[in-house]
Design a protein that fits this description.
The chain is α/β, with parallel strands linked by helices. It is about 35% helix and about 20% strand.
Length: about 250
Amino acid sequence: MVERDDLIFGVNTVREALEVCPDRVHKLILVEGHRHDRLQKLLTLAKDAGVPVVFQPRDGLDRQTDRGLHQGVVAIVAPVLFSDHREIVRSVTDGGDTPLLVALDNIQDPHNLGAVARSAEALGADALILPRHRSASPGGTAEKVAAGALRHLALCRVPNLARTLEELKSDGLWIMGTAGEEGTPLRDIDLTVPLAVVIGGEEKGMRPVVRSACDMIASIPMTGATSSLNASVAAGIVLYEISRQRGETTT
């Protein structure tokens, strides 16, 4: 099956694509009559990489991005490449490092997907695992929110997340789910072991079949009146604590 090209937008997102993987950028579309230095920089990067450039009225970019915050720039890029989760674990382990994978269950908001990817890449995760169904797509909006992280972080798409977690267990990883205030406080869990962290969906959290595949459930103790956290905020807190325990974060 031939996958269609993806559309990404926003200055930082497009700049990352042009700098990191210009060979995967098929076309750059800029708003007509632009006078911004940041857009001129993108034009220069595209020309240096041999990427075709076209100019369109702003309403054309509005339609293509469903009135997303495109900042006057859109790019047509090759589809995101997906990796094999077990190969990533083997590669990380063979390199003498401790694997850290992040799995998303029922994350259907592309803003949350992009925000989780940004935290995961910044805090040292090796890959992001996405179910084939009931999951936001790593395209347009998610790419913009991720600010380039989706072009640096390995992505895995799997048909059955619960089965994938069992495979990761057999490869020596511990599976840790997150569930609001239920479970063991995050700070009391040894997070230096080979680990896959499961972040549940925006409304219902992890599905029961996925929860049952977890070795442990972590909670984030909270002292304020707020009873729950957005999925991407929770992911950021969890990933920071993992990084802190592993000695990768100094402040």
